[in-house]
Amino acid sequence: MPAESFEAAPRPETGASYAGAGVDIEAGDRAVELMKGWVRKATRPEVVGGLGGFAGLFDASALKRYERPLLASATDGVGTKVDIARRMGVYDTIGHDLVGMVVDDLVVCGAEPLFMTDYICVGKVHPERVAAIVKGIAEGCVLAGCALVGGETAEHPGLLAEDDFDVAGAGTGVVEADQVLGADRIRTGDAVIAMASSGLHSNGYSLVRHVLFERAGWELDREVAEFGRTLGEELLEPTKIYSLDCLALVRTAETHAFSHITGGGLANNLARVIPDGLRATVDRSTWTPGPVFDLVGRLGGVERLELEKTLNMGVGMMAVVPETSVDVALTALADRGVDAWVAGEITERGGNAEAVALTGDYAS
């Protein structure tokens, strides 16, 4: 086909505009104004400047107190849980999920979360809705002890429907080099402490939605006696943020490792911190998963192994501590209102054994 000069193209009577393409800059500015108050609450003394710059500033001279500071970085989203928030019209809890997914990955190595940035992508900017999302992120940062130093809201008309949105975030933390936690600290005889989750947290929602909505045909406003609330309210229960609890545990009791129980379930995530030659044996009979896990399994006919590979089954974080530290660790967590218990132990691993073994049946 022969090339044709753009000068030959007819000029339309009405000129195109960004707004005509679906991007509302004024709505974006309004969203920023609405979120400023919440962002100001999620700060730390090291934060320099305020919202509105091209980059967030953090005074790194605060790290001079470290002998050899290591920066830890993590990024994550909340997956298809955003669909529940959209359908419920509730936007101020999903930010808690985002913060929890990021900062609790940071704290696994013993890092103190310092600051986060967020990215919110929407089909159409509804200022109050965007501000509600940021409100939740800011509140989550307060619970995590970190600052929200910046973010981005992007409007993608034509790619996302007007009510569609997604969120992601990145966080940075710091840990002293000789205090990094992990597999190299774990020893035979260590105890595995489980910390209760607040529910599904932010993983496995593709399975949950498939079972509850597509297969079972349940509605979000359905009252569920076992939950004491509606299905939608249960599914939107925010992810528990453990970072300050874990840091308090490290200060109080000798701690060898943490494992954040997210996508992949308990066994796969705990295996990531178990060294070669050792094995973590976890006894299911030490806890009872919440009713939402049984509901998904029963309505979907989901086998236990499949549930355990997908959902946290009631455990959101695990700690590996020396046996001599168990009592102090459990007391420290209880003092912070964390439901925790000894769920297993570290033993020698022989032959081709898996790094993590789940034994017994869940307590009824």
UniProtKB/TrEMBL annotation:
Catalytic activity: 2-formamido-N(1)-(5-O-phospho-beta-D-ribosyl)acetamidine + ATP = 5-amino-1-(5-phospho-beta-D-ribosyl)imidazole + ADP + phosphate + H(+)
Domain PurM-like C-terminal: 188-352
UniProt main location, coarse: cytoplasm
Listed pathway(s): Purine metabolism; IMP biosynthesis via de novo pathway; 5-amino-1-(5-phospho-D-ribosyl)imidazole from N(2)-formyl-N(1)-(5-phospho-D-ribosyl)glycinamide: step 2/2
Annotated compartments: Cytoplasm
InterPro entries according to UniProt: PurM-like_C_dom (IPR010918), PurM-like_C_sf (IPR036676), PurM-like_N (IPR016188), PurM-like_N_sf (IPR036921), PurM_cligase (IPR004733)
EC code(s) of this entry: 6.3.3.1
Keywords linked to the UniProt accession: ATP-binding, Cytoplasm, Ligase, Nucleotide-binding, Purine biosynthesis
Chain ranges of the PurM-like N-terminal domain: 67-175
Coiled coil segments of this chain: none
NCBIfam families, per the entry: purM (TIGR00878)
Family the UniProt entry places it in: Belongs to the AIR synthase family.
Name this protein carries in UniProt: Phosphoribosylformylglycinamidine cyclo-ligase
Organism listed in the record: Streptomyces varsoviensis
